[in-house]
Structures are given as structure tokens and as C-alpha cells.
């Protein structure tokens, strides 16, 4: 009977451990954490100073003894200890102290990218265990995104999802709870920021930071020209004399800066379709492609994919939360959806 009680109060948790953002879903409550995957550390004392939004604000502005660490690079954990601490913080913020019995440790559903090594996959599982999980269930991120988008992943029909995050673009065709055709690229939102930094350096001799590049992308980044050209003032450091300088950059220049990366993403979507069995292509043709992840919000990207692939394309509502919502749906209906889970690495 006790077991039954614990079952009801046990806080099951879904996690999207992303390169840019980490989200936490608690069964019965919904999304409780949605913060940047950044940790600020005092290297003199090894003390964690800030995690999430507060740490992100420090990027590029810290004195020598403070570092801001992004524990994930291109979708995979690059700094295990920091990743584990970050997860522990985000999870415990909401469920620690409330129930302090051992059996109340949560079960965790957490996404991993396609195309990760066994070691990288184990790192995610171990980080979740280290953060306090009693049991960890792994699932591919595009599978969770598709579930979050309420696609019928368990049916024998072709569902195509393209999740464009900060570190990876994951393209997947799903049928019967499995991934039939896929591609995983390390070209995504962060790449676009880098493209913008490089473009400004080469064309204006101006050095700008990541946060500025991101701001430019969000405010004037696009794939097609709008009716009215837009421009934006950007300041940084002049590479020639080292002094502060301001330039004005236009939407068409930003399009040029990111064009190659955007083309690569689109051509990989096309080639994934080419490697998909014809029956499933027919389904995709009818049902369309769903875009998720923050990168899906780049203006006009959906229209470009539609034009190039000649298939209907939709951006899922609230694309940044799609994966964690999928993890939440899996938690809420674990018995029915267990066939989408991957085997544990232990
Ligand atoms: N309006 C927007 N236009 C263009 N890009 C955007 C927009 N909003 C967010 N992004 C980009 O989306 C990316 C973050 O998306 P998301 O949170 O889905 O990634 P992530 O899950 O953390 O990363 P990954 O899945 O690659 O590990 C960032 O690169 C951000 O710049
Ligand atoms: Mg993601």
C-alpha cells in the first residue's frame, strides 16, 4: 500500500537537456524550468555562482577568475560535472525537501540526440542519475519532439520532423515508434551566430560577441527579403584600432551571412526524404513536414523548405518546448508509450 502512495506522490520528471536551453517538466505540473544551459563558476574556489538565466547574463563580461560554461556542445555533454550540477539544481529546485523519502526519487525521461556514441549517451544517463533520478528513460530528441507535436508516431504512417536547436539539426522520419530515416547535423542556431560574427568581421573589420550575433539573428535574421528592408545598429570592437565602433547592418547582409548554413540544412532535409522508403514518402507528402526547435523560428525558413521540398511545412506551436512536452507526454502515459524508449546503457 505504501508503494501505491509513493507512486502517486512520486515526482516523475521530463527533461530536455539542450545545447542552448534546458527545460524540466514535472508530471502533473507541466513545464517548471526553461532556462539557458549555462553555468558560471568561480575557478578560484570551484564554486558555482549562477545557473541558467543569471549565468547567461554574465557571458563575455566576467573577470579572469570567473568562467561561464556551457556544458553541452553540439547537442552532447562536453563537461560532465557541470552538466550534472546544472541538472541537479534545476530538478531539486522544484522537488527537493518536499518529500524526503528515498522512494520519492523521480523517474526521469530525458532526450538524447540522434547520432551519439554509447559514451555520450551514457553521460546523459549518468548525469540524470547523479542529479537524483531513481530510474532514467532515454528517448531520441526528434521522437520526443514528434510526440510533443502530437504526431501519430506509433502508427504505420510516415511522420517527418526537423528539430533545429542551438547545436544540432535533427531530421527524422518516424513510423511505428521507430526512426526509419534520419540525419543529424552539427549545423544549427549556434552556427548561424558564428556565421554572423564571421561576416561582420570580414566585411566591417568589427568584432562582435555571441550575444550580439544572437540579437541580430533574432531581430533581423531571415531567409527571404521582406517588403521593407530592415537594418540594425551593431557595436563592437574595431579590429584595426581596437576601439569601439558602431556599424549599421541590413537584413540582406545577414541573409548572405547565413545562406550557406541554411542551404545545408535544407539540402539535408531533401536528401533524408530521398532515402525514405516510398510508401512513407507518400505519407509525408500528404501530412507535411513539422519543424521544431528554436531554429524553426528563423523567418521564412518554413517557406524555403516548402519551396525546395515541394511538401507542406508547418512550424509547431511553441517550438522551443516541443521536446520537453513530448517527454512529459511519455511520462503521463509511460505504459502505452514505452516502445519509443531506448534501452538503458547500464
Ligand atoms: N526567433 C528566432 N529566430 C531564429 N532563431 C531562434 C529564434 N529563437 C530562438 N532561436 C534559436 O534557437 C536555438 C535554441 O533552440 P532550442 O532551445 O530548441 O535549442 P536546444 O534544444 O537548446 O539545442 P539542441 O537541441 O541543439 O541541443 C538558438 O540557437 C536560438 O538562437
Ligand atoms: Mg533541442
Summarize this structure briefly.
The chain is α+β, with helices and mostly antiparallel strands and 346 residues long. It has helices at residues 2-9, 53-56, 80-95, 118-130, 141-148, 189-204, 210-220, 251-274, 278-287, 301-309, 322-332, 334-337; strands at 13-17, 21-26, 30-36, 39-42, 47-51, 66-69, 72-73, 76-77, 107-112, 135-140, 159-164, 169-175, 178-185, 206-207, 231-238, 244-250, 289-292, 313-315.
Question: How would you sum up this structure, described in words?
Answer:
The structure is a single chain. The chain is of the alpha+beta class. It has 2 domains: 2-144 and 322-340, Nucleotidyltransferase, domain 5; 154-315, ATPase, nucleotide binding domain (Nucleotidyltransferase, domain 5). The chain is built from 12 helices and 18 strands. It has a 5-stranded mixed sheet, with helices on both faces. Strands 13-12-11-17-18 form a 5-stranded mixed sheet, sandwiched between helices. It has a 3-stranded antiparallel sheet with strand order 5-4-6. The longest helix is centred in the C-terminal third of the chain and has 24 residues, at 251-274. The model has no long low-confidence stretch (mean pLDDT 94). The structure holds adenosine-5'-triphosphate and magnesium ion.
Amino acid at each position: 500500500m505504501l508503494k501505491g502512495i509513493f507512486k502517486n506522490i512520486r515526482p516523475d520528471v521530463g527533461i530536455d537537456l539542450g545545447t542552448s536551453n534546458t527545460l524540466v517538466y514535472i508530471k502533473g505540473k507541466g513545464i517548471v524550468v526553461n532556462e539557458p544551459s549555462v553555468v558560471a563558476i568561480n575557478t578560484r574556489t570551484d564554486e558555482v555562482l549562477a545557473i541558467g538565466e543569471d549565468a547567461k547574463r554574465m557571458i563575455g563580461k566576467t573577470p579572469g577568475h570567473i568562467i561561464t560554461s556551457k556544458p553541452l556542445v553540439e547537442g552532447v555533454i562536453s563537461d560532465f560535472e557541470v552538466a550534472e550540477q546544472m541538472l541537479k539544481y534545476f530538478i531539486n529546485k522544484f522537488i527537493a525537501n518536499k518529500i524526503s523519502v528515498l522512494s520519492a526519487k523521480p523517474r526521469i525521461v530525458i532526450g538524447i540526440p540522434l547520432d551519439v556514441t554509447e559514451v555520450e549517451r551514457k553521460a546523459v544517463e549518468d548525469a540524470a542519475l547523479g542529479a537524483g533520478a531513481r530510474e532514467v528513460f532515454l528517448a531520441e530528441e526528434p521522437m520526443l519532439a514528434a510526440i510533443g507535436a502530437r504526431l501519430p508516431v506509433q502508427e504505420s504512417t510516415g511522420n517527418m520532423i526537423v528539430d533545429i536547436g542551438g547545436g544540432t539539426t535533427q531530421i527524422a522520419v518516424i513510423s511505428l515508434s521507430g526512426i526509419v530515416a534520419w540525419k543529424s547535423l552539427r549545423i544549427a542556431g549556434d552556427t548561424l551566430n558564428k556565421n554572423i560574427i564571421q561576416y561582420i568581421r570580414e566585411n566591417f573589420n568589427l568584432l562582435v560577441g555571441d550575444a550580439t550575433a544572437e540579437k541580430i539573428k533574432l531581430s533581423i535574421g531571415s531567409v527571404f527579403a521582406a517588403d521593407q528592408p530592415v537594418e540594425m545598429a551593431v557595436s563592437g570592437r574595431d579590429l584595426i584600432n581596437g576601439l569601439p565602433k558602431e556599424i549599421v547592418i541590413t537584413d540582406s547582409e545577414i541573409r548572405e551571412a547565413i545562406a550557406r548554413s541554411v542551404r545545408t540544412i535544407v539540402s539535408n532535409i531533401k536528401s533524408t526524404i530521398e532515402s525514405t522508403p516510398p510508401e512513407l514518402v507518400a505519407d509525408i507528402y500528404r501530412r507535411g513536414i513539422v519543424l521544431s526547435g528554436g531554429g524553426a523560428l528563423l523567418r521564412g525558413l518554413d517557406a524555403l523548405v516548402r519551396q525546395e521540398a515541394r511538401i507542406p511545412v508547418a512550424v509547431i506551436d511553441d517550438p522551443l518546448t516541443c521536446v520537453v512536452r513530448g517527454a512529459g507526454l511519455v511520462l503521463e502515459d509511460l505504459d502505452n508509450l514505452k516502445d519509443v524508449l531506448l534501452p538503458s546503457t547500464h
